[in-house]
Specification:
CATH topology: NADH Oxidase
Radius of gyration: 20 Å
Strand content: 15-25%
Strand order of the largest sheet: 1-2-6-5
CATH class: Alpha Beta
Structural class: alpha+beta
Distance between the termini: 40 Å
Number of helices: 8
CATH superfamily: NADH Oxidase
Order of helices and strands: HHEHHHEEEHEHEH
Shape: globular
Largest sheet: 4 strands, antiparallel
Length: 221
């Protein structure tokens, strides 16, 4: 069996790095990340969005299949079409599809079916998962697709935060309208819709607390 080509790993570690300080600082920075629903329409250069997507694509994936497509939309007409379709689905969700418990849990966030941010935010990044690829007319398998695309989205959200922008993980359900509007192929399915931009000057977020370390971690020493 022929083995794959390997190259030396380029480590980012240095004896001069205070790993405790670095890890603490990174946590404090990431802990400032919030989901925001109030965006400015201030433009973001396309090259910046390209860099964010390239960063997302560095995420690990099953068998390195990279089963994702990132569709970046700034065209006002397409954003308007997406908003209309998303609001149609969300209206149905808030008026019959969602359980009473679900609606009650959403109350602290002040959300409703009205999604003006889909037109205000300068960019929408729609992430599609690829259950399989088509190569020379033949289907090829992808592995751990949900997990791989989820990891890539995490990388993307972190990159957006690092660049000084805000985002929202929007999941209007069902999302099949995104595949139709963006004319995506049969092997792609919408996974996440992420508005990206600067926060509005008067943007506010819910006063929330994250779970403590004791609530989310168990150590075996």
């Amino acid at each position: 069996m022929q083995s794959e080509k390997f190259i030396p790993y380029q480590s980012t570690y240095s004896d001069k790095i205070d790993v405790e300080q670095v890890s603490s600082s990174h946590f404090e920075f990431q802990n400032m990340r919030r989901s925001v629903r109030e965006f400015s329409d201030k433009p973001i250069p396309k090259v910046v969005i390209e860099n964010l997507i390239k960063t997302a694509s560095t995420a690990p994936s099953g068998a390195h299949k990279q089963p994702w497509t990132f569709c970046a939309v700034s065209d006002p007409k397409i954003k308007s079409e997406i908003r209309k379709a998303a609001e149609k689905e969300e209206y149905e969700n808030y008026h019959g599809r969602m359980s009473d418990d679900w609606l009650e849990d959403l109350k602290p966030f002040g959300t409703d079916w009205y999604k003006e941010f889909l037109e205000i935010a300068p960019w929408l990044i729609i992430v599609f998962r690829k259950n399989y690829d088509m190569i020379d007319g033949e289907k090829t398998k992808n592995y751990y697709v949900q997990e791989s695309v989820g990891l890539a989205c995490g990388f993307l959200l972190s990159a957006i935060h690092k660049a000084g922008f805000v985002s929202l993980t929007h999941t209007p359900s069902p999302m099949n309208f995104l595949q139709k509007i963006l004319n995506r192929p049969e092997n792609e399915r919408p996974f996440l819709l992420i508005p990206v931009g600067y926060p509005a000057e008067d943007a506010k977020v819910p006063d929330l607390e994250r779970k403590s370390l004791d609530e989310i971690a168990v150590f075996y020493e």
